[in-house]
Amino acid sequence: MNKTFQLIFVFILVIASSCTKKNENVNETIKLENQNKEYISPEDIVKADSLPAIGKWMYKSDHNKAEWLGLKLNNKSFREPINIIIVDSISKSVEEAENNLIINFDKAGFKMRIGHSSGYLGYIGNNFYKQVHRNNSQTFSDAPFEINNCHGRIFGPCDINGVYYFSGALSKEKVVVNIPIHDYDSFNIARDKLANNLNTKTNYKTISYVEMLNSISSDSFTTGDHDGKATLISVVK
User: Fold this and answer.
1) How confident is the model at residue 9 (pLDDT cuts 50, 70, 90)?
2) What is the distance, to the nearest Å, from the Cα of residue 72 to the centroid of all Cα atoms in its chain?
3) I need a surface site. Which of 13, 99, 177, 183 has the fewest CB within 10 A?
4) How many domains does the chain have?
5) Which residues contact 14 (CB under 8 A, 6 or more apart)?
6) Mean pLDDT within 100-117
7) Single pTM value for the model
């Protein structure tokens, strides 16, 4: 083989090696993108008029559905439903929407408190969103966790063209005296109490209800007294 052919052969080997490495990098990128994709089953999403896609359930940090820390009701596992949706077209930024929500929930008697499990997610639009929080406080509640209380976790906001969307899971729990157990009492009572308080004490007004199709009563799972609806609240001037 003369020098000319030797040079051509070496050049081909270099190009082939470069393409192989490039393809490996592309495949690795695709693999990473697939791992990070915010996926949710279509059957777990509701699409109502004028709203983005809303996930039906509260999720744990691993994207599995929350089940009240493994609590059983009549030997059935829980599903924790989304039962409130808030639309804020007044605020001018994500930070302002969060701050306004915290301020108005406080006015409604639902302060941000410690003592509840945290790290949950809600699905809005095309992504999972963490709980609205300040420092170590991530749950809104009408009373300290040591006594019976209505509490809720609010997720978002999802910013779509300057409109900020939140979803939330509200529930009432009863505290078993002398035993560190927070037992389920009701989903509807907590949802309705927060919505009524916001409606009468703030500019967060109930405008309708969204059929979430997330009421379950099967052999294996239950959503307790949940009626399958989310209260739709709009922030008005």
Assistant:
1) very low
2) 22
3) 177
4) 2
5) none
6) 93
7) 0.82
